[in-house]
Amino acid sequence: MMRALHDRLKALFPLGELTEQRPDLAFLTVPREHLRSILLHLRDLEGFSHLVLLTAVDWLEEGDFQLTYLLSNRGKAVDLGLRVMIPRDGASMDSIHDIWPTAATYQRELREMFGIQFPDSPGVNDDFILEGWIDMPPYRRDFDTKAFSAATFKEREGRMTTDPEQHMKQQLYPDGA
Amino acid sequence: MSYTPDRSQYPAKKADGTLDIDLTSGKYLKLWHGPNHPGITGNMSVELTVCGDEVVDAKTHVGYLHRGFEKLMERRSFIQVFPIVCRVCVPEPDFNEYCYAAAVEELAGIKVPPLADWIRTLILEMGRVNSYMMYLGGQAGAFGLGVIGQWTTYVRDLMLDRFEELTGARIYHMFILPGGVRDTLPDGFAGRMEETLREIESTLKDVYDVMFCNAVFKKRSVGVGYIDPALMDAYGVTGPNARAGGVAKDVRRDQPYLVYNELDFEPVVGKDSDIYTRADVRRRDVTMSVDLIRQILAKMPKDGPVMAVTPNVLHWKIPRGETYIRGECSRGEYGYYLVTDGSGFPRRINVRGPSYTHAVALLERMIVNLNISDVAGLMVSLHTYPPEIER
Asked: Does residue B288 lie within any of the structural domains?
């Protein structure tokens, strides 16, 4: 079924790699400039009317963000994930809030957590989860949470770590016997 | 006297379509509903702009509970992620465990023993009953029926006893792990579960009489908080919120997972799409879950392995791939999107909680034109849990 859908799409749009994960789930790489047309085609003509999620994967080593638009055809109980690769540097993507209003929330989060810009998405620059955040977007792979904590928060005085084996030895044999 | 909102006089709109609200005019007032408010569902708040007692604008604020789960998981091995996932949703943690475990198993090519699938289904249905019991108490409480919450908390506690007996824990069970479940059912579990189920059924009858037949509850919930079925797909509405509007979609039936294709049930559907119908759909869903638990206990294999052979968890690497696993939790579609890159750590885990779509875009739209006193009732009727939004 997913193969037949792929063939129908291929006749209309240039497509990338297809991964058939399960009979009811496939992932398809699509060119960025055709994403909008493909989304509208899938929503209006193929029954993929439910936007399940929109999220990003940071492929730091390859210098790309993968945006995943997961769509569901609830009538036929099949899902299709569209993968769009965009460069990490100056990451920016077209908004789809006019196709699914709920996408505005996902895009607002992606702007905050990954630093991907979605110009024209309503309220996209408003703080969502992190109020007053000025550091690097924290869900990028190169954001070091440990270094951030060490630089931001003060180590509480009087804290010490004890090796359990040495501690018990000290408790049981205080004389060192 | 009925309440009929009229937005023809206010607020005016600017040329760019945004509302022209001048807070210095004395006509409008900002009101923070939460995060510390008995009518709010968890740690979130809604910034209301009101004119008189009518809401004219609303903005959801989340982030009070952000612990960076998805980031934490990227720095943990696959087994180290397992105790973290359940924390994403307190009242119904088991869906996180199931979705995560199923995603790992699919990408790692692990086949789970049949008995483990039955026990997983049992746990998910027990968790669903618990979640609905919290909801019923909250929904009644939002309209001033405080006693319902006491009754439902009592029967929820009985179900927590069964959880404790089965898993050793009451809230975060950490029982469903990649490869299967931790143990089989204890001796005599089915009998004690039957006693609990009877107590739940008896309480539900009382809840029906006192809550659903109550004139005050009906007056305040019938026709209030209407979700137009045409908006369901646009706003990603799933679960009881969609079913109450006549959209008969239930992942358990449409894309059966675990052993749901061996159980006999039909999705509970309503038609009026208001607060009352959503509450009624959930009440009937509890009855269905009680029936499903009975079916599971009667049909499940009596013995067999509950854990598949998994690789050494300290050196467990999963080939590059991606998948999405979904389930029908008490609030709608719950899902895990897992991406692996061949290393010993997940590349990305994205949790798709139903509250993400229900409590932000949808709530902000529905709350406009509502009376302040109905805001709490509306929020509870969408059955939202904030940690799913800011995971």
From this structure: yes
- The domain spanning residue B206 has which CATH number? 1.10.645.10
DSSP assigned state of B211: I
Mutate to test the interface with A, among B19, B32, B322 (most CBs of A within 10 A): B322
ipTM: 0.89
Q: What are phi and psi for residue B153, nearest 5 degrees?
A: -65, -35
**Which of A21, A51, A131 minimises the CB distance to B63?**
A131
Question: What's the pTM?
Answer: 0.91
Q: How far is CA A166 from CA A169, A175, B273, in A?
A: 5, 13, 64
Structural domain boundaries, residue B134: 79-353
How far does CA B207 lie from the centroid of its chain? 20
Reply yes or no on domain A2-131 having CATH 3.30.460.80.
Answer: yes
Residues pairing with A54 in the sheet: A69
pLDDT tens across B5-62, in order? 555 556 777 777 777 788 888 888 999 887 877 666 678 888 999 988 889 888 888 8
CA-to-CA separations, A114 to A8, A140, B340, in angstroms, rounded? 33, 5, 18
Strands annotated E in B6-164: 12-13, 19-20, 29-33, 45-51, 54-61
Give the C-alpha separation, B157 to A26, whole Å. 42
